[in-house]
Amino acid sequence: MASPTGLLSLPPEIIRVICRELILYRPGYDENHGLKQLSLFSRTCKHVNQAATPLLYSRFLATPSILVTMRFLSSLCRRPELGEFVQQLGFNFPSTEIKVIEHLDIYSEAAARLGVHLGDWSSHNPYETLIHLIIGHTPNVRSMQIFTDRFIEPMANIPTVLDQLAAQGPKRISFPRLERLLIKHCYVTGLPIEHYATLLALAPCLRHLWLEPSPPLHHPWTQPSGRLSLASVTRLTLRLGSLTKNQLETVVHSCGPLELFQHRQSMYSFERRPSVTPAEMIRILEPHAGTLRALSLDLAWRNRDNPAAFYAGPLCMEGDQIRSLKAFSRLEDLELDGSCFVFPAKDDFYYHAYVFAQMLPETIRRFRIIVAPPGTVENLRTLLKSRSQFPRLAQICMENRMLCPELDHNVFFRERDLTDLTVKMKLAGIRFGHDCPLIVDSPSPDFEFTTYAIWPNQNPSSPKETVPLPQFGQRLPGQSDGDAFDLDGLWGW
Asked: Has residue 21 been placed in a domain?
C-alpha cells in the first residue's frame, strides 16, 4: 500500500504552523482576510480541519452584516466547544444596518443555554442582545472591542443579559482570561457604558480598560453606591472624556497600580462640564507615582468650545500647569498638550526656559508635545543643556496641527530653528521629529537664546509644512526594533 503523500503526510504540528501563517495574513483593506483563507484551507480534509478549527474560532471580528454574526452565535450554541476557542471578539454595528430583528429561535436557544431570559430590553435592543449572547458563550476570551454608533434605549430596572449572568450564584459564566476591554461609541451622550459595565464583575483579571468617549452620564463606577470592580486594571484609557475632578478621582483611585493612563478631554461643547486641570490630574495620579510608566494628557479643549476660539486666550492659566513629574520614579513615556504647562513671558522679571528640565523625571525615554505653543523650541534647547540629568532620553516629538482654516489660526515655527534643533538633538543622541507649520525665513539673530514662533493673525510669509510624524511610540526612520514599543506595548491596543 502506498504511503500517504502531500498534505496528509504532514504531522499536526506542521499543519498548525501553516494555519497560523494563514490567519496572520491581514491586508489593510480586510482584517478578516486571514480567517477567510483559513476557512477555505480547513475544508481540505478532516485532518486539516481538526488542526485548523481552534485557530479558525480564536478570533471573531463582526462584519456589518447582522446575518454573519447571527450565524456565528448559532455555531456557538450548537457546538458549545467552539466558544472555548474564542480569544478575541470585535463588534461593529453601524446604524446603516439597523433593521427590525424578530426574536428568532436562536435567541431563545442561546438564552436558555446561559440560564437567562429575554425581556423588553432585548426586544428594544436586538443588536446589543446579540453581542451579550455571544459574549456569554466565549468564556476564554482575552480581548474584546465593542464599537457602536447607535443610541441604546435605557430601561430602568430591566436587567440585560450580562446583568443576569453577573447575578447568577454561584456564577455559571465568568471571563477569567479577559484582559483587554474597549468600549467605543461615536456619540457622547449615547455611550451605553452601563450595559457593558457588568463585564468587569465577571472579569477578575482585566488589565486594560479603554472607554471612548467617557462621559459622566449614567457612569456606573462614579456613583456613590456603585461597587467598583477596577482593582485589576493597570492600564486606563479615557478618550473624549468630560468627567469631573471627583469622578476622575473615584475611577483612578479604584484601579490597581496603574502602569498607563491616558485622558483626552472631550471637544464637544454641549458636553462641557467643570473639568480637571493638568495640576489636578497629576495630584489625582499621585497614588500611582511609583508604578506609572506611560502618561498621555490632552486637556486643551477643557476651556474651548470650537476651533475658532482655540487661540482666543492662554492655553493654560498660571496655577493650572504641571510643574514637576520628578516624583513619578518609573515614568518613561510622556505625551502632553500645550495646555499642560506655562512658559514665562520673555518680558517677565522671572523669565526662564527651563520648564521641561524642571518638569521631566530622570527616567524619561520618550517625550511628545502636541499643540506645541510658542516657547517650545527655547525650552527644548535648555533641556539639551541638562542632558546629563536625563540619561535615558531617546526620542522627542513636537507637533501643532490645531489649525482653524476659516480664520487661518495657528502657531508657525521658523524652519531654520527647527532644523538646527534637529541637528543638536542628533548630536545629543536624541531622535527628534516635528510636525508643525513652518515659515522659511532668515535664521534668528542669536540662535542660542532666541527662537521664533508666530501667534495667530500675524500673517507669516511662505508657510511650509513638514511630512507628518509617525504615531508616538512607532519607529522613527533609522530606529531599530528594540527602540520601538512592543506589540502589546504601552499605547497599542
From this structure: yes
